[in-house]
Amino acid sequence: MKRILLITLALVLATVSWSAPMKLIWMATGPMWLNEEHTPVGGFENMDQKLVAAFMKANPGVEVQIQFRDVTQGMLTFQTLLAAGTPPDVWIEASGNANPYLHDAYAMDMKQYLTKAELAQYKPESIGPYIRNGNVYALPQSQIAGGFAVNLDMLAKIGEKMPDQAKWTTDEFLRIARKLKGAGIPATMIMIKNGLSGWNYQWLYAFGGSLYNGKNYGVSAINSPANVKAFKYMKQLVDEGLVQPFPEEQDENSGVELFTTGKVFSCAMQNGHTDYWVPEQVKQGKLDKEFNMTFVEFPHGPGKAHVETFGYQAIVVSHRSANETRNKMVAKLALVAAGKDYVGQNCIMNGGFSTIIGLEPKTGKAAKPSYAAIAALAKVAGLMDTDPFGPRSGESRAGWKDPVQAFFRGEITAEAALKQMEESANEVLAR
Description:
Layout: H1 2-19, E1 22-28, H2 47-58, E2 62-68, H3 76-83, E3 90-94, H4 95-98, H5 116-120, H6 124-127, E4 131-132, E5 135-136, E6 139-151, H7 152-157, H8 170-182, H9 201-206, E7 212-213, E8 216-220, H10 225-239, H11 252-260, E9 266-270, H12 271-283, E10 293-296, E11 311-318, H13 324-337, H14 340-350, H15 369-381, H16 401-408, H17 414-429
Parallel strand pairs: 1-2, 1-3
Antiparallel strand pairs: 3-11, 4-5, 6-9, 6-10, 6-11, 7-8
């Protein structure tokens, strides 16, 4: 009798174990809304819930928990899960934040789980950065690009209009900046609160400079004659009082705030910033009415016809476990997070650019003039190759704050500042 009870109990336990659901975690930086009002549709609060519900229905026995990373706490939400041994199975994240985890110890090689057709749907330039040694460590979900936002009403106020691209030079910008100063309008933002802002890198490229020598990302080449010219030009803007005062107090956040409240003529940023914040500033009473604006290339220096713009991606990273059954299910879920429904909704709601061949929404934010303007300039000018996907890209620039600020205070030369920047970067890159 005792033996029969033990066998029965073992069968019950085996049944319970077999029927236990596979629990997966889907984590994003925030909800993908279904409409501009952020109201529920069809019983779902957001696109994440809608797609996850459909996935669970199609895959009985799988439970997917949705978590949103608290961006105000940096990477704490992700790091807490990682420390607990329960990292998100499907992780939607900015490429720069996710990059340190794009290797065999963390991420799945999607080539092992998806078909050639499923991988071929992505634009080569979108998926390319995540193919390393033949392994595909992430799926591209959204391309974010920026440009040089300009206030056309301010130009009209001083009797000017945007010149043709061929005439949009650094000398022409200097001329216009001086007229704007006469009207009490700062021409642009030099942002050095944390070093040299990535939104100011385009001044380097305007003079033919860069951060590296070609594709040699293992060695910084910022100490170049072209970058010396760019530094001297930026300092001239500061010294003549043509920019927002106190550049050491300015960063990307103040750039967005000052441009979208109509306080400065220009600033590098993304269409998502202006499309959201300009009308929001009106609602908050910081702006009387929306102003006329557009996105253009940065002014180009001698020998340059176009200045590359900046951009990054939101990507989907799949955590690799020792359980192949789980890995296969995670890969299916990742394909949902980087699928046409989610990618398309991101274009419509957030103004991101599609990473999927043939998918080009024309509604919502994707229908706005700013969206078309950035798409056009990015296509013509291309993107700066700042190696945003490199494992030490951020760390290598951490030592730039002191020499950059010392240069703009007039304490050291451009050559000395760039020399220190290059040496500190190469010290990190050599590790």
